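Final report, closing paragraph on structural work. Over the funding period we assembled a curated collection of sequence-structure pairs, and we close with a single example.
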Amino acid sequence: MERIQINGEWYIKESEVKDFLIKSEEELDLIPTHTESLILETSEFCFEATRCYRDNDEGFYDGIDIEFTDKRPARREDWIIENWDNMAWIKGVFENDPESIKIAKKTLNEEGLKALKHLLKDAVKREWLIID
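Its predicted structure, as stored:
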C-alpha cells in the first residue's frame, strides 16, 4: 500500500482505497431479504405486518411478523416496540380466540385491538395470512 505523510497526516492513494472497498464488498456472503409490508397507524399505535420472500423465487414464506409500536408514552424515545411472530396467537386474535384476545388486551386498549384486527383482516384479504 502506497502512503505519503503530509504535515503529520498519512494519506493513501485513492485507487488503493477503491480496490480495498471492492475487495471488502466481494467478500460479503450476505443476501438481502426481500419483504413486503402493510402499515396501519393510529395516534396511539403503529402496526407493521411484514412477509418475507423466499430466496429461491418461489413466492413468500407462510405467515407474517408484526412490528408493534406503542406510541402512548409522550416522548418518542419512550415508545415501546415489540415484534410479534407467533402465528397461532396472531390467527387467534383474528378469530377472536378468548385466550389470544386476553393476551392482546394486556398490551392494547379497545381501539388498539380494533386497529390490529383491521390490519389482520386486510392481511387475510390479500392472502398474506391464511386462516384454515
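The mean pLDDT is 89. The CA atoms of residues 90 and 100 lie 8 Å apart. We thank the funder for supporting this effort.
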